[in-house]
Every structure is written in structure tokens, then in C-alpha cells.
Amino acid sequence: MRPSGRNVDEMRPISIETGITKHAEGSCLIKCGDTHVLCTATIDPGVPRFLKGSGLGWVTAEYGMLPRATNTRMRREAKNGQSGRTQEIQRLIGRSLRAGVDRVALGERQITVDCDVIQADGGTRCASITGGWVALRLAVNKLMKAGDVISDPLVDPVAAVSCGIYAGQPVLDLDYPEDSEAGVDGNFVLLGNGQMIEVQMSAEGSTYSRDQMNTLLDLADKGVAELMAAQQAAVA
């Protein structure tokens, strides 16, 4: 039995509320159970120096956790004092979102997606990617409405979910009690067409077989399908 009482293939309740902030071109608050992340997207007219004159757009991300997002207060991370974990997560979010973007269609502009964890209960990077895509979608909608882009640069939705082996059982969408004790922990980032962007799997307390990995991939497919349905409902 999972600590939450969920079935092994059952997601936590998902909600995505859009238009959370006044000034950002796209914003949402995504809740995956007790993990809550505020995602905002900002459109900038320029691109990083290495892309100037290329005609290609760029999507990047920043990630952070508020001091009381967890059960004890954490110190705020200054921009130049980010932990290795924070840097790794925001790079993951950025490259995940870029995988669903036609950068030629986006044109020579940058969209920055900020993901701020208000409350953490496992799966914050996955919630950030899923909510980040919604914020990105809303920002791109504004570009299209204004006629600043000719064709839709978002070629496919992007979403992510965690899966792992807890108490010997493959389970979908780990919350913190499961994540902290899982024998195997994995994060799965997928496109809407089923193609994989990234899989992060590691043996935390025990190794795993190929059959178990395939089971986790099947669970991830199910979870991502539910997340993408929530995304589409949010941006409809």
C-alpha cells in the first residue's frame, strides 16, 4: 500500500490555473497533489549572443524554491550562489521545453520560463516542466495574436512525470514519502507524440531490471497522457 493510499498507476490530483500573474506574457499555477509551482513566461526581443544573426529563437528556464516550500526553512539562493541541484533542474527544464519548439518559427527572440516552487512534496522538476509548457503556450499565443510570428512555433506539448520502485513495486508519480524511500527513482520527459526527451533513472537503494524499466516507462506514458489532457484543458 502506498502511503497516500493511491493505486500503483494512479496520479496525484492535477490542477492548472492560468493567468496567475498580471505582468507575465504567460503564467499558471500547477498543483500536483501537494506540490505547487508558479510558472511564468517572459518574452524578450533579443537572444543570447551566440544566436545573434542566426534567425533562431531560444527558450530558457530558471528554477527556485521558496524558503518555506519544505517542512523546514531553506536559505534563499542568490543568483550567483545557486546549488548544483538548482542549476541542473533549470537546465533540464530549458532543454525539455526547447524540444517542443520550432526555433525558426519562433524567430530571433527569447522566452524565459521561471518556475518557483511554492510548496514541495516530490516531483517539483516534473511539475515545473509541465506547468512551464502551459506558461510558454500562453506566451506564444500572445505572439501569434499580435502577428509577431507567422506559424505556431510550439510543435508538440511537453510534460514530465516521476516514476519509481517503492517497497518493491513500480509506482507512478512519487510524492515525498515515496521519493525519499524509493529503491529506484526516475523522471520521464515526453513529447505529445510519445517521443522521449529525457529519462533520468537511478538506483537509490537497489538496482533494477530491464523489465522493471519497461514497466516504469509504461507508467510514465499513462501519467504524461493525463498531464497533457490537463494542459490542453488549461490553455483551451
TrEMBL record:
InterPro entries: ExoRNase_PH_dom1, ExoRNase_PH_dom2, ExoRNase_PH_dom2_sf, PNPase/RNase_PH_dom_sf, Ribosomal_Su5_D2-typ_SF, RNase_PH, RNase_PH_bac-type, RNase_PH_CS. Its EC number is 2.7.7.56. It catalyses: tRNA(n+1) + phosphate = tRNA(n) + a ribonucleoside 5'-diphosphate. Gene3D superfamilies: GHMP Kinase, N-terminal domain (3.30.230.70). CDD domains: RNase_PH_bact. Keywords: Nucleotidyltransferase, RNA-binding, rRNA processing, Transferase, tRNA processing, tRNA-binding. GO terms for biological process: rRNA 3'-end processing; rRNA catabolic process; tRNA processing. Phosphate binds at R85, G123, T124, R125. GO terms for molecular function: 3'-5'-RNA exonuclease activity; tRNA binding; tRNA nucleotidyltransferase activity. Residues 10-139, 156-222 form the Exoribonuclease phosphorolytic domain. The keyword Nucleotidyltransferase applies. Pfam families: RNase_PH (PF01138), RNase_PH_C (PF03725). Belongs to the RNase PH family. Phosphorolytic 3'-5' exoribonuclease that plays an important role in tRNA 3'-end maturation. Removes nucleotide residues following the 3'-CCA terminus of tRNAs; can also add nucleotides to the ends of RNA molecules by using nucleoside diphosphates as substrates, but this may not be physiologically important. Probably plays a role in initiation of 16S rRNA degradation (leading to ribosome degradation) during starvation. This is Ribonuclease PH. It comes from Profundibacter amoris.
